[in-house]
Q: What sequence folds into this?
């Protein structure tokens, strides 16, 4: 018996030094990650499920018979519609299922991509950055175990999402194969972006830059798909370059083809392979993109709370600003396409963009679109205060003779200025694009004015975030993002889905006049601005009274 | 230490986080111009005390005065007169170390640019590196340099040497002596007795949110016990009978091992001398040993925690 022991033990340990050693502990880590995410992941997947349920229920309300759908389909079929949704397969004779796949499924793909990027970044780069990965790796955990575990968790989550989406779509009587295509397409989109994020977490040393790089890939995919699908019904070459184009190219309920999803799997595998290779070449905690030497001394501006806030918020303003400007300018450049199609559009569509001239309605919508993106920037930027506080950096500043009011106040001031800057620049950029394609320079001023008109509404979101930060900091992220989600929902689907007024009125963007479709009205702006100021004041008061939190 | 009012005086501080009583009737007094060692095992309440002194936390009960003011109500005015180094320094990842040093010092008020450069040199910190590339020790150096270059009356240092290598610890000790010579008061927390011993005029030992001992090192000598391991040429039978010697053992090859109370070291060294000492090692007690002997605390082996579970 002792002989058996003597022969098996060395063999097993020799094995452990081989390839499998780098994966040791993967199973434990998978369970650990699933446990840490036991709220987050079900919330994401549940959110996707609810979305399908809501759309499935709303479509028959919107168009009581499938024939009624024909009246609304031009919205998806026109170039601008295709830009926002997809290649518009089957929109010549729409049914509930093709309308669901053509108009609403693309948002599922986006959500799955975002979920996967955040999942991978959270479990890999954030862990390394905080040093928690070091604690884990010091145990019997192989070098590749965390990466493998994160990918396995992404696989599990996206598989569950695929099943949930497919089953719920089938529950509305949508065709089985098409429903599986929508669901599985959602899952494989998630996997592909998990692969992308697995690479970016190797490159950047900081979780925000890692997530930002992956987000930039997603944004690039969105733009390529938008341009590609705009070019022709059924998409064009550019659509095929974009990972967001592939799930739409399965043409669920129309062509029902599976093979475009193989491209997702190939991207996911390529990403994973690259991530393993890159990981083997770097130290724990390090990134592959190294930092250049910087200033040995601080410039004079960096010696006041306002100077610090400006420096810390700078990146976010530039990043968001460039993105929002780009989207605004591209959308603006399609105004003439909108104008050309005015005559061919049915009443229901005209209603969606406002009662008056469709072009004016479209320009007003562009301003609203910028409005909710700017509101998203505001929520993101105020969350920076939370991470300053949680990391202890706020404490270091507040331990100097910087008052709490000065610290929060200067951040809020910089964020407000950032939002104003984004509005002005995007208004100008969009206006320029509109004026050029329409050959009417008066439109430049109108579009700029439409953007500025919405600024007080965006600042209400800042006021709300300030109140949350001052009085209930844990609610800042959930409530802040919920409000942005609501604004987008109301802005995109409000009139289409015939939402009750009280829901629409929850969005601050619903209150200002829809310039240039409506006449300017000062009343709502005064109220909104006052709300913003009261919110900020309350927030400052709250932060003075509460304790400064640390890890 | 006489005459002038204490720089810090806290009495009966209670601070709870849910069910945890982080501070449980804590009394602390720090006199003008002294280096005060604030010693306690992990989780004893040292950082919580610092955060109350900074007005980041409001105590549930008790009274605190610092530099003649109320830490919560007069925070801004008091902060102009002190510098704080947190236990776990986090910096802005895209600012360089040099920028962070200047920023914090300027936000405090007056600082000495020449002294700042000199400290960078002595601590061997490259101020042009982005903070995201710094190790824990380097981040700690940034906070320390900024604090030491500031023109303040009081330094609140929360485990400032936890990430420093031994060479840098010597630099740190020298810098603290200079601060003391310049008339500054220093509150220096640590969970390692030996680190505080070399610097502190007085020590307060905190355990489970209460200060259990306070006094000069000499006052605390009775609490400490040095472990001695000696290689002797002659039998050491007499040693065991000396006052203050405990747990004497001798192994086959003549190595003796015993513990000696802090206030009897002198007699024991005399008694060892004629026994033909070939090698001698003396260990100072760890804080955990000390607390265990006096309060029966369980020893947690957690000097530098690098592993989570075993
Ligand atoms: N913000 C907090 N929330 C909950 N518990 C805390 C918080 N801060 C400290 N504690 C708890 O209070 C106790 C004392 O912590 P701390 O003051 O950090 O100890 P030390 O600095 O001496 O290691 C510990 O049990 C710790 O877990
Ligand atoms: Mg501590």
A:
């Amino acid at each position: 018996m002792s002989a058996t022991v003597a022969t098996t033990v060395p063999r097993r340990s020799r094995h452990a030094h081989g390839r499998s050693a780098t994966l040791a502990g993967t199973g434990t880590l998978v369970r650990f990650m699933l446990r840490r995410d036991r709220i987050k992941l079900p919330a994401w997947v549940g959110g996707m499920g609810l979305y399908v349920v809501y759309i499935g229920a709303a479509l028959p309300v919107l168009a009581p018979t499938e024939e009624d759908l024909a009246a609304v389909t031009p919205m998806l079929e026109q170039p601008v519609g295709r830009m926002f949704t997809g290649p518009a397969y089957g929109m010549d004779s729409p049914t509930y299922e093709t309308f669901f796949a053509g108009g609403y499924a693309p948002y599922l793909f986006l959500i799955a991509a975002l979920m996967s990027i955040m999942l991978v970044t959270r479990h890999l780069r954030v862990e390394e950055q905080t040093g928690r990965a070091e604690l884990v790796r010091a145990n019997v955990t192989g070098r590749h175990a965390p990466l493998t575990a994160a990918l396995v968790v992404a696989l599990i989550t996206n598989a569950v999402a695929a099943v949930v989406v497919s089953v719920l779509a089938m529950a509305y009587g949508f065709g089985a194969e098409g429903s599986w295509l929508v669901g599985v397409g959602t899952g494989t989109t998630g996997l592909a972006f998990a692969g992308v994020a697995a690479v970016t977490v190797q490159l950047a040393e900081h979780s925000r830059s890692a997530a930002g790089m992956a987000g930039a890939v997603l944004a690039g995919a969105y733009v390529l798909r938008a341009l590609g699908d705009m070019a022709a019904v059924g998409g064009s070459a550019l659509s095929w370059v974009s990972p967001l184009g592939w799930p739409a190219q399965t043409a669920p309920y129309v062509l029902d083809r599976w093979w475009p999803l193989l491209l997702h799997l190939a991207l996911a595998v390529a990403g994973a392979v690259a991530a393993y290779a890159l990981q083997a070449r770097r130290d724990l905690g390090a990134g592959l993109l190294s930092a250049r030497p910087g200033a040995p001394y601080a410039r004079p501006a960096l010696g006041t709370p306002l100077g610090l806030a400006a420096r810390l918020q700078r990146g976010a303003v530039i990043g968001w600003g460039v993105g929002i400007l780009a989207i605004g300018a591209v959308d603006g450049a399609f105004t003439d396409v909108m104008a050309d199609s005015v005559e061919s559009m049915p009443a229901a569509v005209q209603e969606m963009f406002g009662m008056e001239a469709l072009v004016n309605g479209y320009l007003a919508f562009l301003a609203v679109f910028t409005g909710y993106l700017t509101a998203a920037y505001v929520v993101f930027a105020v969350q920076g205060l939370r991470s300053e506080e949680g990391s202890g950096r706020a404490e270091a500043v507040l331990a100097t003779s910087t008052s709490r009011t000065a610290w929060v106040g200067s951040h809020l001031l910089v964020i407000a200025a950032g939002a104003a800057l984004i509005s002005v620049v995007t208004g100008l950029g969009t206006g320029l694009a509109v004026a050029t394609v329409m050959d009417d320079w008066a439109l430049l001023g109108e579009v700029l004015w439409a953007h500025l008109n919405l600024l007080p509404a965006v600042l209400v979101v800042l006021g709300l975030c300030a109140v949350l930060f001052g009085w209930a900091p844990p609610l800042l992220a959930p409530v802040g993002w919920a409000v942005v989600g609501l604004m987008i929902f109301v802005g995109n689907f409000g009139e289409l889905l015939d939402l009750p007024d009280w829901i629409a009125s929850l969005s601050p963007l619903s209150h200002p006049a829809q310039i240039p479709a409506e006449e300017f009205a000062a009343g709502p702006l005064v109220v909104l601005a006052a709300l913003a100021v009261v919110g900020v004041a309350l927030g400052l008061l709250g932060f003075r009274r509460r304790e400064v939190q640390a890890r | 230490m006489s005459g002038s009012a204490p720089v810090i005086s806290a009495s009966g501080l209670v601070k709870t986080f849910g069910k945890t009583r982080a501070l449980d009737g804590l009394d602390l007094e720090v006199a003008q111009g002294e280096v005060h060692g604030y010693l306690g095992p992990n989780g004893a309440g040292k950082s919580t005390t610092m955060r109350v002194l900074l007005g980041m936390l409001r105590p549930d009960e008790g009274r605190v005065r610092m530099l003649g003011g109320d830490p919560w109500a007069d925070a801004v005015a008091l902060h102009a007169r002190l510098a704080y180094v947190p236990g776990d320094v986090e910096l802005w990842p895209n600012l360089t170390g040099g920028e962070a040093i200047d920023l914090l010092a300027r936000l405090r008020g007056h600082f000495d640019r020449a002294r700042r450069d000199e400290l960078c040199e002595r601590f061997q910190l490259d101020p042009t590196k982005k903070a995201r590339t710094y190790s824990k020790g380097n981040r700690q150096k940034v906070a320390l340099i900024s604090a030491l270059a500031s023109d303040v009356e009081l330094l609140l240092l929360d485990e400032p040497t936890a990430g420093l290598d031994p060479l840098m610890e010597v630099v740190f000790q020298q810098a603290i002596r200079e601060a003391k010579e310049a008339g500054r008061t220093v509150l220096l927390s640590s969970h390692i007795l030996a680190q505080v011993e070399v610097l502190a005029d007085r020590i307060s030992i905190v355990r489970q949110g209460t200060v259990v001992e306070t006094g000069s090192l000499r006052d605390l000598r009775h609490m400490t016990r040095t472990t001695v391991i000696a290689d002797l040429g002659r039998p050491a039978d007499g040693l065991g009978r000396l006052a203050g010697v405990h747990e004497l053992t001798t192994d086959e090859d003549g190595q003796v091992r015993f513990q000696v109370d802090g206030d009897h070291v002198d007699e024991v060294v005399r008694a060892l001398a004629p026994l033909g000492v070939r090698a001698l090692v003396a260990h100072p007690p760890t804080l955990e040993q000390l607390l265990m002997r006096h309060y029966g605390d369980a020893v947690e082996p957690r000097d530098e925690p690098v592993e989570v579970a075993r």
